Design the sequence.
């Protein structure tokens, strides 16, 4: 069963209320061209059932989305779209940069001089002590 929200732009795409340039579709996921691409060939992969974030996403659907991301990356490389490399990106939550509250994976081609980059925080590059890494790892491991 596909659950959609009336005010979600991606759900409107799933319903056909908003047009999209579809790349792939099956009963659980949809892939289409991003209308604000980082570079030509920028594709979004979404679940057809609404999920605001990863916590709400069915793990099997998430796995299917990532399998498709791998296929899309290979298709970009084989196509005549300018592509020297590929980024696969998922933002989970507004603070992480998620703009649309419906889980989605970005897959987009990269090439020399494309102008895209990640801004790293001021602490990046400082290597923490192993004891700090172990402490954080234990906190996360205990919640798995």
Sequence:
């Amino acid at each position: 069963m596909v659950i959609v929200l009336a005010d979600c732009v991606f759900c409107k795409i799933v319903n056909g209320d908003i047009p999209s340039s579809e790349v792939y579709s099956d009963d659980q996921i949809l892939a289409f061209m991003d209308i604000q691409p980082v570079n030509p060939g920028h594709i979004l992969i979404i679940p057809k059932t609404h999920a605001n974030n990863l916590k709400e996403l069915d793990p099997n659907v998430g796995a299917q989305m990532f399998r498709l991301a791998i296929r899309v990356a290979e298709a970009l490389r084989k196509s005549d779209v300018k592509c020297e490399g590929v980024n696969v990106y998922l933002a989970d939550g507004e603070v992480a940069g998620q703009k649309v509250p419906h889980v989605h994976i970005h897959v987009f081609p990269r090439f020399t001089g494309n102008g895209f980059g990640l801004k790293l925080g001021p602490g990046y590059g400082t290597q923490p002590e192993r004891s700090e890494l172990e402490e954080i790892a234990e906190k996360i491991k205990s919640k798995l």
Summary: Residues 59-78 form the longest helix (20 residues).
